[in-house]
Automatic annotation (TrEMBL), chain A:
The keyword Lyase does not apply. Residues 2-178 form the FAD-binding PCMH-type domain. Keywords: FAD, Flavoprotein, Oxidoreductase. GO terms for molecular function: anaerobic carbon-monoxide dehydrogenase activity; FAD binding. This is Carbon monoxide dehydrogenase medium subunit. It is an enzyme of class 1 (oxidoreductase). InterPro entries: CO_DH_flav_C, CO_DH_flav_C_dom_sf, Diverse_Substr_Oxidored, FAD-bd_PCMH, FAD-bd_PCMH-like_sf, FAD-bd_PCMH_sub1, FAD-bd_PCMH_sub2, Mopterin_DH_FAD-bd. Its EC number is 1.2.7.4. Gene3D superfamilies: 3.30.465.10, CO dehydrogenase flavoprotein, C-terminal domain (3.30.390.50), Uridine Diphospho-n-acetylenolpyruvylglucosamine Reductase, domain 2 (3.30.43.10).
From TrEMBL, chain B:
Pathway: Alkaloid degradation; nicotine degradation. GO terms for molecular function: 2 iron, 2 sulfur cluster binding; metal ion binding; oxidoreductase activity. Keywords: 2Fe-2S, Iron, Iron-sulfur, Metal-binding, Oxidoreductase. Pfam families: Fer2 (PF00111), Fer2_2 (PF01799). InterPro entries: 2Fe-2S-bd, 2Fe-2S-bd_dom_sf, 2Fe-2S_ferredoxin-like_sf, 2Fe-2S_ferredoxin-type, Beta-grasp_dom_sf, Diverse_Oxidoreductases. It comes from Streptomyces olivochromogenes. The keyword Cell cycle does not apply. Residues 1-77 form the 2Fe-2S ferredoxin-type domain. Residues 155-175 are annotated as: Disordered. This is (2Fe-2S)-binding protein.
Length: 290, 175
């Protein structure tokens, strides 16, 4: 039987109280949301927090809102809610694509958007998707609120820019005229990605004015392929350019060999999936579902 | 820590360690062994139960997280002596072989039919995609759920309607 080591359990009834509890318990405390990454790690004793602070009661963090020109996704929004949201589906197909292939429906019923990002697992899909979208994260700590660009958020595997006693509150993404897609290869349904790629394209007058490429599970710094993004910006959204962007992404990522495949295979997939995601995004920009 | 969990409409109060998992609370504390305990890693889904009206894997939920909440297990599926159409479907279509995955499969099936009265085969396969049948008897499981849909199982059960009404609101606001 896999059982976590003993810990203190606290239920937060407000954001302020959650931060107070985090302050009181210090670095040995962990926030638990859906618990679908943390509890398995605790069962394996890879994580052994002295205290768990449960934020499932914080309804204020469980909303999907359109706030001004931004989509604001609360940290406690469940994967299933993000997947089912009409506003997310309309403006951010990359998130819908990613959510469809994150674990399985039961896990998606419990796991949260904020938990996924704060876990900073190199194989987690939303990290790359939101990085491609250049999301802004809103964090709250004892000193108040601050915003962190997602490309400054990930400090390495399982490490983020959140300070002690700081809590992720919401993820904000500007709603603008762009097209996006996410493509993943997995060994079996519901598994972690062997490799996945997300693409975001803004196109004006037949020219790419901004590009975002997120890469999952290939050790891409900040989950993105910046050189491929630089290459695309200012170019035409055509197959030749997308193929070259794929080749660049394939070169700039840093996969490691594991049970999901050797380095060469992952590099190959990173290139192919980047190209496919770009093509799918471009097709959507022209009103075709791909 | 003292917790009170409503399971199949009945309140249970127990003193538990915070590290006790919901699946073990149901089986060992309450004696509700209909919920099975399988892989322990949230892969196999035999431990699926409803938490506040939504199916979850109870090996990856702490019992203390269910404090003050509502749980529905396979023991709460039948209506008195009358089996739920989903249970009848598993009987009619040989939806079980060893029976290990059956309670979890049926809880997810009940939820699916409450939200989609006429699911396609693809809808059914997607709904149960987080659950494994170690006998690989998926064909008959899908047939069983279709059978339930075709035999009045698609109607929302009174329990499900009540759960949805009492579930905390999730809004989508255009500001």
């Amino acid at each position: 039987m896999q059982v976590p080591a003993a810990f203190q359990y606290e239920t937060a009834t407000s954001l302020e109280q959650a931060i107070e509890l985090l302050t009181r318990y210090g670095p040995e405390a962990r926030v638990v949301a859906g618990g679908h990454s943390l509890l398995p790690m605790m069962k394996l004793r890879l994580a052994q927090p002295e205290a768990l602070i449960d934020i499932n009661g914080l309804g204020e963090l469980a909303l999907i809102r359109v706030d001004g020109h931004d989509l604001a996704v609360g940290a406690m929004v469940r994967h299933a809610e993000l997947l089912a949201s009409p506003v997310v589906g309309e403006h951010f197909p990359i998130l819908r694509d990613a959510e469809r292939v994150i674990a399985d429906p039961l896990v998606r019923n419990r796991g949260t958007v904020g938990g996924s990002l704060c876990q900073a697992d190199p194989s987690e899909d939303l990290s790359a998707a939101f990085s491609a979208l250049r999301a802004t994260l809103v964090a709250q700590g004892p000193g108040g609120r601050r915003t962190i660009g997602i490309r400054e958020f990930f400090r390495g595997p399982y490490e983020t820019a959140l300070n002690e006693a700081e809590l992720l509150v919401e993820v904000r993404v500007p709603i603008r005229s762009h097209a996006s897609a996410y493509r993943k290869v997995e060994r079996r349904v519901g598994d972690w990605a062997v490799v996945a790629a997300g693409a975001v394209l803004e196109i004006a007058g037949g020219v790419i004015t901004e590009a975002g490429i997120g890469l999952t599970a290939v050790g891409a710094p900040q989950f993105v392929a910046e050189q491929a993004e630089d290459f695309l910006r200012g170019g035409r959204p055509d197959d030749e350019g997308f193929a070259e962007a794929g080749r660049i992404a394939s070169r700039e990522c840093r996969p490691t060999a594991d049970q999901r495949g050797p380095v060469d295979y992952k590099r190959h997939l990173a290139g192919v999936l980047t190209t496919r995601a770009l093509r799918a995004a471009a097709a959507r920009a022209q009103g075709q579902e791909a | 820590m003292r917790i009170t969990v409503t399971v199949n409409g009945e309140q249970h109060t127990r003193d538990v360690e915070p590290r006790l998992l919901l699946v073990h609370f149901l089986r060992d504390e309450l004696g509700l062994t209909g919920t099975h305990w399988g892989c322990d890693t949230s892969n196999c889904g035999v431990c699926a139960v409803w938490l506040d009206g939504t199916p979850v894997k109870s090996c990856t939920v702490l019992a203390v997280m269910a404090d003050g909440h509502e749980v529905r297990t396979v023991e709460g599926l039948a209506h008195g002596a009358e089996l739920d159409p989903v249970q009848q479907g598993f009987v009619a279509c040989h939806g079980l072989q060893c029976g290990f995955c059956t309670p979890g499969m049926m809880m997810t099936a009940r939820w699916l039919l409450d939200h989609n009265a006429d699911p396609s085969e693809e809808d059914i396969r997607e709904a149960i995609s987080g659950q494994m049948c170690r006998c690989t008897g998926y064909e008959n499981i899908v047939r069983s759920i279709r059978w339930a849909a075709e035999h009045g199982g698609g109607a929302r059960t009174a329990d499900a309607a009540a759960d949805t009404e009492s579930a905390p609101g999730r809004e989508e606001v255009r500001a």
